[in-house]
Amino acid sequence: MHGEDCGRYHFARTTHILLWALLEPARLSKRVATALQDPANELWVSPISTWEMILLAEKGRVILEPDPATWIRKVYRTIAFQEAVLNHEVAIQSRSVDLPYQDPADRFLIASARVYDLTLVTADDRLLHFKQASILPNR
């Protein structure tokens, strides 16, 4: 895994991993749960995950009460994380991500992992074998 720093790792969670960690922790593999709970590791969240959580709530695929914005703000006040700022370099890198599909969220999450030297934690089959970024599979 990339992002190693004196025995520490820096993890970016894909949106589903973030939601599972908060709402359905039993869906996380033991390896992922241990890595995310280890205080020596640094956890990062992209604004793209915030956007995706709101979209999922609007589509009825996840319930965030009392409303998505309030739920997200409350969660972000209670968990320790770094924000993977969506900057110009991330935007530039998103277009060099070699994916066979054009999902902008996946492109921005991978680009953020590359720009900030993070390990992307995911269960998305389409990303598990991606070679242009460090991946920790939820398996």
Describe this structure in words.
- This protein has 139 residues and is of the alpha/beta class.
- It has a single domain, classed as 5'-nuclease (Rossmann fold, 3-Layer(aba) Sandwich), CATH 3.40.50.1010.
- Helices cover 42% and strands 13% of the residues.
- It has helices at 15-23, 30-37, 47-58, 68-78, 88-94, 104-115, and strands spanning 10-13, 42-45, 82-83, 119-122, 134-137.
- It has a five-stranded parallel β-sheet with strand order 3-2-1-4-5.
- Helix 5 packs across helix 6.
- Mean pLDDT is 92; it is low at 2-6.
Helical residue percent band: 40-55%
Beta-strand portion reads 5-15%
The number of domains is 1
First CA to last CA: what distance?
15 Å
Give the CATH architecture.
3-Layer(aba) Sandwich
CATH fold title: Rossmann fold
CATH class: Alpha Beta
Looking at CATH, the homologous superfamily is: 5'-nuclease
Identify the quaternary structure here. Answer: single chain
Any idea what the shape is? globular
Mean pLDDT: 92
Low-confidence stretches: 2-6
Structural class: alpha/beta
